[in-house]
Give the backbone structure.
Amino acid sequence: MTAGCDSYAWSELFDQIFSATPWPMLMLGEDGTVLGASDEGHKWLRPCNSWGDTPLRERAAHYVSVLRGSTSWLTPQEAESVRTLPSGASAHERIHVRRTAWGACLTIVDQTDVRRLQTMDIQSARLAALGFMVAGVCHEVTNPLTSLHSIVQILQSEKHVDKELLDKGLSNIAINVKRLLDVSRRLVKFSRVDDEPRVRFAVDDAIEEALSVLHQSGSLREVELSHKLDPTATVFGNTGQICEIFLNLFVNAVQAMGGKGRLNIATRSAGQMLEVLVSDTGPGVRADAIVRIFEPFFTTKAGTHGTGLGLAISTEIAHEHGGTLELRQTSPHGASFCVTLPKERL
């Protein structure tokens, strides 16, 4: 207890506060010491949703670790917490920090059920979107299947297949099978909601992770890269999914430029939202493709490059995070896409 404080008086006050709120609460002193916890003392005054869990006093260090600020427990704020319960399940909580005469009060609001319902809603939305995509699957797989059928018939009709024809036939079969597998994998991945919890992270970290994938593949060897970062640009979401948005955009840009050109990436604040502009120096998007570019299975790439699902899936991920993905500008000198995401709630 801080100097000059009457321990008994504070204890009486804490009991009154604890009995009046349904949520678990921690009282911290100016130095971060735990002065009181709502699951201690008279159990009939305590909220029952903490029973069976680790005592609040033992959780204090974890809660303080997710807060922001030089003296985080004295900085009024709200923060997200994900803990592993003794049972092995995950607990999602929102921490509310308020300054008080004795130091600070931390209120812990359980959001596990809310997050579970949100996940179910996302799953339902994805399955609904998948239903629309499936309508295009039949047309999408018809071409490679027709090609496979023709090749097999040709090879079967030849009594003595020469090596050149056999090699050409097998190569064609491999290309078409790969295309079918690509479509199948992307659809399966899109229909399944990632179990990775949502966390607070810098959006530029997700951008750098996506760029590192392209660096490792050698795709950026002849691409001039410019990335303007914003250290304050943080979001709350699934890092893997946000990274996939940028990876899809970067791959499209590099392919549009034929592996040579300039890729510009700029992160900036736009009111309550964050914007990430991704621009290239390719030929731009054809006028007849602008209205269809985000449709599932629509692709401007010739041959077997791409499944036409990248931008469609990226758009759904952006929407699930409360944001958008749009074609901001296009010309014969390049295209510019914009990813908009809500700033992290303070």
